[in-house]
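User: Can you recover a sequence for this backbone? Please restate the input before giving your answer.

Assistant: Of course. Working from this structure:
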């Protein structure tokens, strides 16, 4: 949207439920492993950042271009602020275009069901060899990294990072994706608000990330 701030049809502003977006210094205790995301009854929004040569065509066409390699692992993040931490508010090289990718919940949950943790967990894997085999064979993998606040400082609770490979990568690009939007202007505007000390404005601009309804059937093998 030239000259304006992108507001997709299902973007919800204000009153954010994610603790990473709460008033700094007054963070509500959250479960250590919990998916928080902007979602609808049928879709969930995840974030990625790319060089403009890939990100801009994807946002323009609403799908990933042929140049987007479907045979490589790709990581998707449902946390806007964790994405800001990863891409430096869209300023790091080859991460200047921040995308909000709306995908089907059916695809997102398929990936979770078929995912393996990136680290060995004795409570979930009988031995290291079994874990390594599952990791090698799984089309998706999960790691939990510290969620971030508006200053991109780590919080105690974790944020989901979902890695897709092989079949999952291809299905993500060509089947699960519903829409792609360039949210780089939003990233820059939130960053400016934080730099100017206007945290109320920064919070009001953030997407409303709510706890995602993922029970033991989705996360039992991935989180405590």
């Amino acid at each position: 949207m030239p000259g304006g701030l992108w507001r997709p049809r299902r973007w919800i502003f204000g009153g954010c439920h994610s603790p990473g977006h709460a008033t700094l210094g007054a963070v509500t205790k959250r479960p250590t492993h919990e998916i928080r995301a902007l979602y609808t009854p049928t879709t969930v929004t995840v974030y990625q950042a790319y060089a403009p040569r890939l990100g801009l065509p994807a946002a323009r066409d609403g799908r990933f271009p042929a140049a987007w390699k479907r045979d490589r692992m790709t990581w998707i993040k449902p946390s806007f602020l964790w994405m800001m931490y990863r891409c430096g508010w869209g300023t790091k090289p080859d991460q200047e275009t921040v995308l909000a990718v709306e995908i089907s919940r059916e695809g997102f949950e398929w990936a979770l069901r078929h995912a393996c943790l990136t680290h060995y967990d004795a409570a979930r894997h009988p031995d290291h060899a079994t874990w390594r085999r599952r990791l090698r064979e799984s089309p998706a993998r999960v790691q939990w990294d510290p969620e971030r606040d508006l200053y991109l400082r780590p919080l105690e609770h974790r944020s989901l990072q979902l890695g897709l490979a092989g079949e999952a990568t291809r299905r993500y690009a060509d089947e699960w994706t519903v829409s792609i939007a360039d949210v780089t202007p939003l990233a820059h505007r939130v960053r400016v608000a934080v730099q100017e000390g206007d945290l109320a404005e920064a919070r009001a601009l953030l997407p409303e990330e709510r706890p995602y309804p993922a029970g033991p059937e989705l996360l039992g093998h991935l989180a405590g």
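That completes the design. The CA atoms of residues 111 and 140 lie 6 Å apart.
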